[in-house]
Amino acid sequence: MPKVEVSCAISNCSFYGEGNICTAEKIMVELDNHARYDTEMSGELTEKNHIDEAIKSAETCCKTFKPKK
What DSSP line would sit under 2-30, residue for residue? Predict the structure, then answer.
């Protein structure tokens, strides 16, 4: 699997690293209209068969977010 650098500006995420770099091993991105904002989603990273299409980046959200304790 290729290694990519993911930028993130959410400083209260436990995966937030120096220089606005995401340190998570896996990233899950979902369409905003599928997102449930009342729960943490980092446990759902094993979901592989769900496919959607977005027209612009504003329609997406990162489901990997896990707040710092």
Answer: -----B---TTBTTEETTTEE--SS--EE
The residues with which 13 forms a beta bridge, in sequence order, are: 67
* Contact predicate 10/42, CB 8 Å: no
Q: Is the pLDDT of residue 22 over 90?
A: yes
Q: How confident is the model at residue 46, as a pLDDT?
A: 52
Nearest to 63 by CA among 47, 19, 51, 17: 47
Name 22's Cβ contacts closer than 8 Å, sequence gap at least 6.
6, 7, 8, 13, 15, 16, 64
